[in-house]
Amino acid sequence: MERADITRDILAAVGEFNGRWLWKRFTNSDCFGVRIAEPACPEPRRGEEPMLGVVLGNAGEEYGLSLFRGAGAAASFAALLDSHGPRDDVLNDMDMLGYTMEVFGRLLPEDQRRMRQAGQHPRYDEQVPHFLAKPPGCRARFPREAELRLLLLVLRAVVEADRKKLLQPARLGAKDGICVLAISGDAAAPQVAVTREHWWHAGGAAYPQPEGPRRIRVLSESLELRGLPRLDATWLVGLPTVPAGIQGDDRVMQVLLIVDEASEYVLQGQPVLGDNLQEAVNIIIETFRGGGLNRRKGLPRRIVFSSRKVHDAGAPVLEPVGIEYVYEPEIPLLGRIVADMVAHFVRGPRLSAGKAEAADSAEVPAPDDLKGWKAADLQLARRFAEYFEFGKQLHSSRVIKRYFGDDDLQSHLQDHKERAVVPAYTAWGILDYRASKNSKIHAEKMLAEGLPQPEAILLRDGCLPESVSRDRP
C-alpha cells in the first residue's frame, strides 16, 4: 500500500470515528485499553503491547484520539491529568500516537502536501486531522507508515466496537475496570472483542512497577568531591522539556536547571538531548566544582529534584559525599522559571522598546528589496505583539470596555479567536486609542522613543491614521 493510499484510508477512518461523536460520552479523563494480536499488528516488534486510548473533544477544544503506548502508558496519561501539570520526566518519556482536528491552513506545508498528494484539497479554513507521533525521548513528528497503519487499525476497531455497543467510558481505577479491545484478524475489517480489566497507573498486571530506583554508571573521577567546601544552601534541580531542538535530530531537548532556593539565583541552565542522564549528572558535578554561573565551588547541604530520573541517577554521586537529596514532583519556583524559559523559546528574545539612539541603527532597505522590508515588517509586528503581552494599558478595564463594551477580555478573546481578535484589538490600542482628547496614541510614543529606521518608516507611512502627524519626531 502506498503512502497516498494510507492517507486516503486513514482520512476515511477518521471521518467514521468522528461520526460516532464519542466525545459526547467520553470525557478527557476516560480511557479504554487496546491489545492487538501480533499477526495483525502493523509493527510486529510491538505486537501484543498494550495501549491506552483517550477520546478528545469533551472539553470542546481539541477533537481526536490519543494512543498512549508502552509500559508507561497509563502513568503518562495519569500525569497529564494531574492538576499540577505534567512532571519533568513525563513529556520526555511519553510514547504517544494519534490525531487532533486542526484548520487545514495551520498545518505545516509538508502535511498539507501529503493530503494533496492523496487527492484531498481541503479549504483553508476546513477542519482536517493533524496526525502526530511522539516516541519516548524524541520530539513529536508526523507518523511513519507503520504507525499510520496502526492508528488506522485502531480507529476501525473502535468504530466496530462502538457499533456493537461494546465500548463504554471508564476512568483508570474504576471499580469495574476499563474496556479493553482485543483486536485480531484482517486490518481492513478487524475482529474486536471487548473485556473489562483493571489497569492501574501505579502498577498492576499491564503496567508493573519498576523494580527499585534507576541508577546509571557514573565515572569514578566524578566521585572525587569530598575536599570541596560545604555550603549552607538548598539547590533545586529540574530537567524540563523545552520546545527546541537541533535540525535533523529528533531527540527531545531538556534543560538541566539548577537554582539556589534562598537567592533564586540560576546556577545552571544547560541543554540535555534525549534521555542523557549521564550528561545531567555531569552538569551537577560541574556546578559543585565551580562551573555554575556564580563560579562558586562547594557542596550544598540539600538538593531537591523535580525529576525522578535525575534524582535516582545522581544518587551514586550524592550519597558518598553526604548531600541530602529528595524528590518533589512539584517545585513552584522551578515552575515559574521554566514558564519564563519556555515563553522565551516560543516568543524569542524581547525587542527593545525603542531608544532614541536606535533610530539610525538599521539600514533602510532599497525600495525593491522585498526581503528586507518583510524582515522589518516582522520586527514591527513583534513589537505590536509584545505591547499586547507585556503592556498594561491594553489590559486595563477602561481600555477593554472602550473596545469591547465590557471588561471581560478573556471571554472576548476566546469567543472571537478565529477572527484574529488579538491583532485587531492590539492595532486599535496602538494606532487609535487615546486616554484623553489631547493624548498621543501609542504609535506616536514609539516613534518619539526611537525605532530602527525601516520600522519607523513602516509605522509612520503605512500605519498611522491620516489624522496623526507624520512628521518625524
What features would you describe in this structure?
With 473 residues, the protein is of the alpha+beta class. It folds into three domains: 3-197, no CATH class; 228-345, Nucleotidyltransferase, domain 5; 356-462, no CATH class. 35% of the residues lie in helices and 18% in strands. It has 14 helices and 13 strands. The protein has helices spanning 3-19, 73-81, 88-93, 109-117, 145-163, 277-288, 308-318, 332-347, 370-390, 397-404, 409-415, 421-431, 442-449, 453-462, and strands at residues 32-36, 51-56, 64-69, 96-103, 127-134, 178-184, 191-197, 230-238, 241-242, 253-260, 266-273, 299-305, 324-327. The strands form two sheets. Strands 5-4-3-2-1-6-7 form a seven-stranded mixed beta sheet. Strands 8, 9, 10, 11, 12 and 13 form a six-stranded mixed beta sheet that branches. α7 links the parallel β12 (299-305) and β13. α1 runs parallel beside α5, α9 (370-390) crosses α12 (421-431) and α9 crosses α14 (453-462). The longest helix has 21 residues, at 370-390. It is globular and about 75 Å long. The protein starts with a helix and ends in an 11-residue tail after the last helix.
